[in-house]
Recover the amino acids of this structure.
């Protein structure tokens, strides 16, 4: 299935700075030590959709190199280690952009993926929506290309529609809402008021939240759809404000949970509820993989390296792309090989671990290829907690208290 | 810093000092407080904090100079190493450590200093007297642990993201070999005979013992503690006793120090200490071992012979490193 948006988008193909000059595609490691004779090269691919140019003033616009800058850091980190084991790393990034008038027809994600595969790349990181991820996985089935999903949170990609060659670095919605629910249970804020946005992702996020509430003994005290439009984006008073203010009246709840993946209204809700209640979910207190305030577990060093490289703060998508490309590098160092088949087998091995500045090693779940990882619970300016919370135990690892566990998985992996 | 950082020369000096009928302890403990931007001074006889000295920002690695009169403290966020007069507690000068110094170790002669620059993927070789950088050795990502062979010929640096122990020739400043260990290696400690190198891996949860001659990992020590998840077992600081029989391993958020038989590699005991224990240091007579406990803001004192924790001493915010002077 192809994302309905795809036809309206065109590819600019090989992108910007990285492909500009042959020597510029990877950060060359400084003076390699004597041993680095001829290094074997691993080329890593990234297919992403740069955020559309923001309006003339948007304080929180996503940077155009979101995700790409994470890839550059991973290539640099891999290369630094690689020169000690005679491996070099290079990045091929494909930016898919909307068609501009008079330009050739848009390139689809699958075209871009086939193109990279034809150039010999065997590891592709996708920062794309779920439908495009699936389309790429199906187009490359059996080609020996390993795919990393760095952004789509959809549980179906880890469930009924899982694919043997597709690994997920982005946490699923179920992991995100489990992390949040553990925190709420830990705080004993048990009565939830769930406010769900109009978009498909919002509904899926709300479903995941309901499942998590049940799993961790929380109660859905009230539920309302959000029908007042993108008030968070309006950033000011509008005729609907009065209505939006009173719709929380007369409810008995501990905490408001907003399901708004697009960020249209969630940031409007805090301080606009009738009763003084905290707001959590996709805005307010959120579960995420990375945040500027994370500095423990060596994260400060990664934050600094990233900022020097990109001139901005590292965002969750940058971290997720970084983690995917570091997984390939890590496997290559551990196995001392650049052979794609051996690396794919090493990454899929349940014993494979990846350090990722979270205090514990990360690994891929064998039943659905989801990366096990602690999730940060953050408010805009502070780290509040890290899930799994203390005391949530599991027979394998506390990390498996987040997301879909082996007994409940709908994923049936068959080797392509 | 007991026998670790400035090893053989210090050990010799120490033996001489001991023979010269020094009192049993009469040593001073210095603890760097990473978030307190200070050094806590503890008297070993009374086990009391006698002073707290302000130093540069984010003090981490810490070591005592050859004769105990000077203390070296990495001020990581100020990109320098502060030299503190241990009589007055005042910073007498600052050294050009290169960016973000974390751990360092001195040549047996007391000079030069080998500094891990955590943010910059290099080891800086620094002449202390001339305050001059002699060499910058490129290593892996996030260099941290620093070990020096007792004869001073081989420097080992561990890089936390590259997950290797880099063997560096101290004459040529060339990396001569790289040994892959488990994730996030934090600390490197040579045995006194120079034959074995112990490297802790914080995220990997193991300690690798490397044969220095063949540069092969001969043993990976793992830890199991009832009631503590494997994820909480995060080895950081490692210290070997001078007689080579025992190793002490700080296990981070497991809040324990493991006692390991250094010959059979069996874990003999887990000693409960403060929270998030990272670095360790022996008193010169090796009767006591001090641990820095980051989140409980204290130092635990271990009786090495009895293998018991005898005291905890509150220090500054987020204690990181510890060094002990025979003075």
């Amino acid at each position: 299935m192809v994302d309905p948006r795809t036809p309206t988008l065109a590819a600019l193909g090989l992108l910007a700075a990285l492909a500009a000059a042959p020597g510029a595609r990877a950060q060359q490691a400084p003076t390699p030590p004597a041993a680095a004779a001829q290094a074997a090269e691993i080329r890593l691919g990234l297919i992403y959709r740069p955020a559309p140019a923001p309006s003339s003033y948007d304080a929180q616009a996503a940077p155009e190199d979101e995700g790409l800058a994470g890839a550059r850091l991973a290539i640099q980190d891999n290369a630094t280690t690689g020169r000690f084991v005679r491996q070099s790393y290079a990045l091929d990034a494909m930016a898919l952009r909307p068609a501009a008038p008079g330009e050739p027809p848009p390139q689809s994600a699958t075209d871009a993926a086939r193109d990279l595969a034809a150039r010999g790349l065997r590891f592709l990181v996708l920062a794309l929506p779920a439908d495009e991820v699936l389309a790429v996985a199906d187009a490359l089935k059996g080609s020996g290309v390993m795919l990393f999903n760095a952004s789509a949170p959809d549980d179906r990609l880890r469930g009924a529609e899982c694919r043997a060659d597709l690994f997920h670095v982005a946490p699923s919605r179920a992991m995100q809402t489990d992390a949040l629910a553990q925190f709420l249970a830990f705080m004993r804020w048990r009565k939830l008021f769930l406010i769900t946005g109009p978009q498909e992702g919002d509904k899926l996020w709300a479903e995941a939240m309901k499942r998590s509430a049940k799993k961790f003994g929380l109660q859905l005290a009230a539920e309302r759809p959000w029908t007042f439009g993108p008030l968070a984006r309006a950033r000011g008073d509008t005729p609907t404000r009065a209505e939006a203010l009173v719709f929380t009246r007369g409810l008995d709840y501990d905490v408001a949970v907003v399901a708004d993946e697009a960020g249209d209204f969630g940031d409007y809700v805090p301080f606009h509820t009738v009763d003084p209640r905290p707001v959590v979910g996709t805005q307010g207190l959120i579960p995420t993989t990375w945040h500027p305030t994370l500095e423990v577990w060596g994260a400060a060093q990664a934050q600094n390296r990233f900022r020097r490289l990109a001139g901005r703060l590292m965002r969750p998508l940058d971290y997720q792309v970084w983690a995917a490309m570091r997984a390939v590098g890590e496997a290559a160092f551990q196995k001392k090989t650049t052979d794609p088949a051996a690396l794919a087998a090493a990454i899929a091995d349940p014993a494979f671990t990846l350090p990722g500045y979270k205090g514990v090693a990360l690994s891929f779940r064998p039943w659905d290829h989801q990366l096990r990882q602690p999730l940060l619970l953050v408010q805009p300016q502070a780290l509040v907690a890290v899930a799994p919370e203390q005391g949530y135990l599991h027979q394998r690892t506390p990390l498996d208290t987040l997301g879909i566990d082996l007994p409940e998985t709908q994923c049936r992996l068959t080797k392509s | 810093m007991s026998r670790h950082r400035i090893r053989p020369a210090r050990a010799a000096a120490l033996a001489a000092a001991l023979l010269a009928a020094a009192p049993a302890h009469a040593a001073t403990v210095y603890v760097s407080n990473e978030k307190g931007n200070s050094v806590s001074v503890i008297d070993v006889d009374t086990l009391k904090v006698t002073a707290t000295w302000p130093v540069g920002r984010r003090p981490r690695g810490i070591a005592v100079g050859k004769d105990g009169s000077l203390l070296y403290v990495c001020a990581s966020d100020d990109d320098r190493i502060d030299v503190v007069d241990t009589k007055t507690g005042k910073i007498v000068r600052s050294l050009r450590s290169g960016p973000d110094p974390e751990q360092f170790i001195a040549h047996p002669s007391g000079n030069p200093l080998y500094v891990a620059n955590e943010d910059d993927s290099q080891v800086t070789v620094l002449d202390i007297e001339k305050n001059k950088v002699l060499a910058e050795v490129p290593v892996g990502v996030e260099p941290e642990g620093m070990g020096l062979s007792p004869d001073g010929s081989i420097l080992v640096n561990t890089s936390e993201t590259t997950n290797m122990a880099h063997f560096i020739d101290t004459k040529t400043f060339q990396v001569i070999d790289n040994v892959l260990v488990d994730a996030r290696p934090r600390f490197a400690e040579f045995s006194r005979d120079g034959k074995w190198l112990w490297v802790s891996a914080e995220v990997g949860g193991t300690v690798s013992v490397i044969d220095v001659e063949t540069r092969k990992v001969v043993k990976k020590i793992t830890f199991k503690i009832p009631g503590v998840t494997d994820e909480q077992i995060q080895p950081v600081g490692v210290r070997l006793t001078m007689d080579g029989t025992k190793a002490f391993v700080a296990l981070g958020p497991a809040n324990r120090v493991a006692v390991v038989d250094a010959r059979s590699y069996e874990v003999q005991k887990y000693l409960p200490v403060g929270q998030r224990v990272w670095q360790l240091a022996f008193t010169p007579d090796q009767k006591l071992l001090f641990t820095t406990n980051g989140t409980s803001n204290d130092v635990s004192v271990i009786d090495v012979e009895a293998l018991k924790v005898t005291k905890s001493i509150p220090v500054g915010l987020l204690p990181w490193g510890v060094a002990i002077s025979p003075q």
